[in-house]
Specification:
It is built from 4 helices and no strands. The longest helix is centred in the N-terminal third of the chain and has 24 residues. α1 runs antiparallel to α4. The N and C termini lie close together (about 10 Å). It is about 70% helix and about 0% strand.
C-alpha cells in the first residue's frame, strides 16, 4: 500500500505542476475597449471553445477536478 501512496503522490505533484503552468499560460479576462465596440462578437469570440485558449480552459477544469479528487484520496488515511 505504501507503493500505491507514493505513485498517487507523484501523480498529484505532476498535476500540481501542470495546473500551475496552464493557469499561467491563459490570457486574462479583461474586456478592455474591445467589449465597448462590440469586438467580442467576432469569429474568434464566437469560436473560442475550439481555439487554443478554449482547450486550455477545458484542460484546466479537468486538472482541477483531478487535483481535488486526488487530494481527497490522499487525505483519507486508508493507507496506514
Amino acid at each position: 500500500m505504501a507503493t500505491l501512496r507514493i505513485v498517487i503522490q507523484i501523480i498529484f505533484i505532476l498535476i500540481c505542476i501542470l495546473l500551475t503552468a496552464l493557469v499561467l499560460m491563459q490570457e486574462g479576462k479583461q474586456a478592455g475597449l474591445g467589449a465597448i465596440s462590440g469586438a467580442a462578437e467576432t469569429y474568434w469570440g464566437k469560436n473560442k471553445g475550439r481555439s487554443m485558449e478554449g482547450k486550455l480552459v477545458k484542460i484546466t477544469k479537468w486538472l482541477a477536478i483531478f487535483f481535488m479528487l486526488i487530494s481527497i484520496i490522499l487525505n483519507l488515511n486508508i493507507y496506514g
